[in-house]
C-alpha cells in the first residue's frame, strides 16, 4: 500500500476505507490550513506545507488552483508525485454541495508531464 500525504484542506477520515480499496494509505488529517485568498498568504501556506513533506513523496492535492500551483512548484523539483482524488459533487437536500468518496486516484497531468520530461 502506498502512502499518500494529504496536502488538501479536507479531512479524509470518511474515505479511508475507499482509499485503501484503491491501494492508498492516505493521511486523514489535512495539512493545509484555511487562509485568505491573497497571493502572499497562499504562497506562505504552500511553503509551510511543502516543507513538511519528504522528498519523493506521493501527495494528494486538490482545491484552490492557485494553492495547488504553488505546491506543485515546490514539490515537483523534489521528485514528489502529485495525485488527485476523483469524486462526484452532489447537492444535498439543503442545496449544499457534498463530495462523494473517491472513484479513483490519478496522478495530475502536470505531475505526469514533469516526471516524463525528467527522464
Polypeptide structure, described:
With 119 residues, this protein is of the alpha/beta class. It contains 4 helices and 7 strands. The strands form 2 sheets. It has a 5-stranded mixed beta sheet with strand order 2-1-3-4-7. It has a two-stranded antiparallel sheet with strand order 5-6. The longest helix has 13 residues, at 39-51. The radius of gyration is 14 Å and the shape is globular. The mean pLDDT is 92.
List keywords for this structure.
five-stranded mixed beta sheet; two-stranded antiparallel ribbon; 7 strands; globular; 119 residues; alpha/beta; 4 helices
Level of helix content? 25-40%
Structural class: alpha/beta
Unreliable stretches: none
Count of helical stretches = 4
Query: What are the secondary-structure elements, in order, as H or E?
Result: EHEHEHEEEEH
Strand order of the largest sheet: 2-1-3-4-7
Main sheet makeup: 5 strands, mixed
What is the radius of gyration? 14 Å
Number of strands: 7
Write the layout of secondary structure elements.
Elements (H helix, E strand, L loop, with lengths): L1 E5 L9 H6 L2 E3 L12 H13 L6 E3 L4 H11 L5 E6 L2 E3 L5 E3 L4 E4 L1 H10 L1
Parallel strand pairs: 1-2, 1-3, 3-4
Antiparallel strand pairs: 4-7, 5-6
Helix pairs in contact: 2-3
Kindly summarize this structure in a few lines.
This protein has 119 residues and is of the alpha/beta class. The chain is 34% helix and 23% strand.
